[in-house]
Amino acid sequence: MTGYPFRNRQSGLTLVEVLVAAVLIMVVLVPAMEALRTGMLGNQVLRSTSGEHYAVLSRMEEMLAEPYGALTSAAAAAGSELTPSSYSDAAGPPDRRLVFIALYDATDADGDGNVFSVPDPDLDGDGNPYTDYSGLLWVRVDVEGSITSLESLVAP
C-alpha cells in the first residue's frame, strides 16, 4: 500500500473559516481606521496652531522693533492692560491679532501688589503716569479666540 491516504480530500477553505477571517479583519481594521482619523485631526490642529504661533511671533517682533516712545503712546491711548492697543489688527479677520501694551511695575514700587499700577512721580505736575515714563512696558500679542499668545517686557 503505497500512495497518499488523504489524496481524495478536497483542499480549500470552508465557509466558516472565511467568515471567521472576515470578522477578524473587521475587528482589527476598525481601531486602525480610528487611529488614522485621529492622526489626521491632530495634523489639522497642529497646522492651525503653528500658523497662529508664527503670526503672533511675527507681530511680537514688530512690537519689539518699535520705538519705545511709540509703544508708550499706544499704552497711554489704550489706558489699560485689558484694552487692545492701536497696534491690533482691524476687526473682522478670523485670525485677528490683538496687541496689549501697559506700564509695568516689576518692583511693586507703589506696594499694591498690582504690576500694572505704576506710581506717577509727577515731575511735570500733570498727574499722568505716561508722561516721561521710563520704566518697563508689558506687551502681549494674542490671536483673538485662541489660546495662542506671547508676552514680553520692553525697556527704554
Topology (SSEs and partners):
Elements: H1 15-65, H2 68-78, E1 97-104, E2 136-143, E3 149-154
Antiparallel strand pairs: 1-2, 2-3
- How far is it from the N-terminal to the C-terminal residue, by CA? 107 Å
Number of domains: 1
Placed side by side, the strands forming the largest sheet appear as: 1-2-3
Apparent shape: rod-shaped
Strands, count: 3
Percentage of β-strand residues: 5-15%
The average pLDDT is 85
Can you tell me the residue ranges where pLDDT is under 50 for at least 5 consecutive residues?
none
How would you summarize what this structure contains?
The chain is of the alpha+beta class. It has one domain. The protein is built from 2 helices and 3 strands; from the N terminus they run ααβββ.
Describe this structure in words.
40% of the residues lie in helices and 14% in strands. The protein is rod-shaped, with a radius of gyration of 33 Å. The chain has one domain. The termini are far apart. It has a three-stranded antiparallel β-sheet. A hairpin with a 5-residue loop joins β2 and β3.
Key descriptive features of the protein:
single chain, 156 residues, alpha+beta, three-stranded antiparallel beta sheet
